[in-house]
Design goal:
There is one protein chain. The chain has no helices and eleven strands. It is an all-beta fold and about 110 residues long. Strands 2, 4, 5, 6, 9, 10 and 11 form a seven-stranded mixed beta sheet that branches. The protein is globular and about 40 Å long.
């Protein structure tokens, strides 16, 4: 049974940083493409970043240069380092495995002064 557990969300001021983690179990993590998505209040779920099994990364335009996705296959964990946070980054952030086949429960990120 695949499980994805996100952590690291919270309240941060504009311009601040957070690092989200997603711990995976029940799957061959090193083979999986992993991604981060987010859903802001009243909006649909939006793709944020993706890292392939070969560590190639892609980002949605609004986070390029501010967010970094990475993975540690020894820990079965994918990370999202978020810098220069803006109020519009406020959302529930979800981890996904295999391009949307599996999802975590989400972690809230709130950017506000």
């Amino acid at each position: 049974q695949v499980q994805l557990v996100e952590s690291g969300g919270g309240l941060v001021q504009p311009g601040g940083s957070l690092r989200l983690s997603c711990a995976a179990s029940g799957m061959t993590f090193s083979f999986a493409a992993m991604g981060w998505y987010r859903q802001a209040p009243g909006k649909g779920r939006e793709w944020v970043a993706r890292i392939s099994s070969g560590r190639s990364t892609t980002y949605t335009d609004s986070v390029k240069g501010r967010f970094t996705i990475s993975r540690d296959n020894a820990k079965n964990t994918v990370y999202l380092q978020m810098n220069s946070l803006k109020p519009e980054d406020t959302a529930v952030y979800y981890c996904s495995a295999w391009d949307g086949r599996y999802w975590g429960q989400g972690t809230q990120v709130t950017v506000s002064s």
